């Protein structure tokens, strides 16, 4: 990814008095997230407010994602809280944001808040919840989430969900249990799964 070049093009565009539009903003925010370019992300956020882009769901979600990936969870939370009609993507981003920084308990709280808000979790929700449990070493909670996928939410676990569970159990030092779980998978085993 040529992140610096993308940001330089944005700067050049502004120097030539061309106003970035909705598509430009949506293209550059993930670059800021990927390269943890927090200062540039804040500048873009200010630009969205001044130009009225900040109330667009796609921009709002991209801002939450950018702040979370840059480690600025307070700002991510502020933008998330300001979203009037949060969708499953909004919730998934917040769960993942806290999870990637080792705050699994907060991720689980957000997941429960999502359910209280009557937002139906999807298969990605469970991947980010399981990853959050993995980063925080929450084995029991991970197993509960995995079981609730099919029992409470009618979502069939995919190979990614099984891989998360094998990793959660294995990292906790329960290698025999992880291997047993691995052998229960109803999928053709891939080299990546054997690596896990």
Structure description:
By secondary structure, the chain is mainly α. It folds into 2 domains: 1-85; 86-196, Alpha Horseshoe (Serine Threonine Protein Phosphatase 5, Tetratricopeptide repeat). The protein has helices spanning 3-15, 22-34, 38-50, 57-69, 73-82, 88-100, 104-116, 123-136, 139-153, 159-171, 175-183, 191-195. Helix 10 (159-171) packs antiparallel against helix 11. The radius of gyration is 19 Å and the shape is elongated.
Feature tags:
single chain, about 200 residues, mainly alpha, 12 helices
Sheet-strand content, in percent, reads under 5%
Number of domains: 2
Major sheet? none
Distance between the termini: 27 Å
Structural class: mainly alpha
The helicity comes to over 70%
Extended strand count:
0
Order of helices and strands: HHHHHHHHHHHH
CATH topology of the largest domain: Serine Threonine Protein Phosphatase 5, Tetratricopeptide repeat
Unreliable spans: none
The overall average pLDDT, rounded, is: 90
Outline: elongated
Give the helix tally: 12
Q: What's the CATH architecture name of the largest domain?
A: Alpha Horseshoe
CATH C-level class of the largest domain is Mainly Alpha
Q: Mind telling me the C-alpha Rg?
A: 19 Å
- Write down the oligomeric state: single chain
Summed up, what is this model?
This protein is 73% helix and 0% strand. The chain has 196 residues and is mainly α.
């Amino acid at each position: 990814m040529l992140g610096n070049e993308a940001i330089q093009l944005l700067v050049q565009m502004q120097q030539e008095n061309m106003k970035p539009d909705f598509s430009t903003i949506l293209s550059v925010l993930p670059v800021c997230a990927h390269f943890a370019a927090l200062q540039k992300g804040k500048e873009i956020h200010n630009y969205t407010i001044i130009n009225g882009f900040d109330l667009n769901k796609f921009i709002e979600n991209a801002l939450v994602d950018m702040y979370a990936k840059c480690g600025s969870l307070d700002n991510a939370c502020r933008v998330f809280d300001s979203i009037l009609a949060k969708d499953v993507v909004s919730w998934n981003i917040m769960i993942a944001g806290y999870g990637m920084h080792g705050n699994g308990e907060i991720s689980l709280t957000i997941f429960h808040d999502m359910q209280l808000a009557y937002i139906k979790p999807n298969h990605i929700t469970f991947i980010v919840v399981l990853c959050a449990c993995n980063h925080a070493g929450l084995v029991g909670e991970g197993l509960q989430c995995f079981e609730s996928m099919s029992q409470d939410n009618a979502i069939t676990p995919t190979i990614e969900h099984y891989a998360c569970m094998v990793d959660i159990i294995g990292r906790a030092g329960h290698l025999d249990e992880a291997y047993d779980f691995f052998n229960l998978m109803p999928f053709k085993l891939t080299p990546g799964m054997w690596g896990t």
